[in-house]
Design brief:
It is an enzyme of class 5 (isomerase). It catalyses: [protein]-peptidylproline (omega=180) = [protein]-peptidylproline (omega=0). Keywords: Isomerase, Rotamase. The chain is of the alpha+beta class. The chain has one domain (about 45-150): Chitinase A, domain 3 (Roll). Helix content is about 25%, strand content about 30%. It contains three helices and seven strands, in the order ααβββββαββ. The longest helix has 15 residues, at about 1-15. The radius of gyration is 19 Å and the shape is globular.
């Protein structure tokens, strides 16, 4: 009897852990690499799983993860559906207050630089639906780093 209860508890714990906490790393990696191949992008992969493409290097200063930046951007899913977009003048924000993919990714650009960030879900909004973004989503951002505030 004691072993039956233990088996039921273990089975319950295992079945509960396969819910929304699902690890999307492998799925996102394949989605991103397929997207890069289909769109013939020359992307750089970071240790974190973030990919980025630099279209224009820019000539100004480079931000750090502690910088406040002004960025114009368009955010969309791999299918091209836009979920957010700034004006051409962009928006200003501290890099410590945005998703991890931006905190890391924006630091690869110099002022005036343009490119794309391909953000796996663990560097975006994770496995849960957040503000209309489905859990586990890869997010693509076309960015223009307008300025780095001192």
């Amino acid at each position: 009897m004691k072993y039956s209860v233990l088996a039921i508890v273990c089975a319950f714990l295992v079945s509960c852990s396969s819910g929304p906490e699902k690890d999307f790393s492998t799925i996102n990696e394949k989605q991103i690499t397929d997207y890069i191949k289909i769109n013939k992008l020359e992307a750089i992969k970071c240790e974190s799983g973030l990919y980025y493409v630099i279209d224009e290097a820019g000539e100004g200063s480079k931000p750090t993860s502690a910088s406040t930046v002004q960025v114009a951007y368009k955010g969309y899913y791999l299918n091209g559906e836009v979920f957010d977009e700034s004006s051409e003048r962009g928006i200003s924000f501290p890099l410590k207050r945005v998703i991890k993919g931006w905190t890391e990714g924006i630091t690869y650009f110099k002022e005036g630089g343009k490119g794309t960030l391909l953000v796996p879900s663990h560097l975006g909004y994770g496995p849960y639906d957040t503000r209309g973004i489905p859990g586990g989503s890869v997010l693509v951002f076309d960015i223009h780093l307008i300025s780095v505030k001192k």
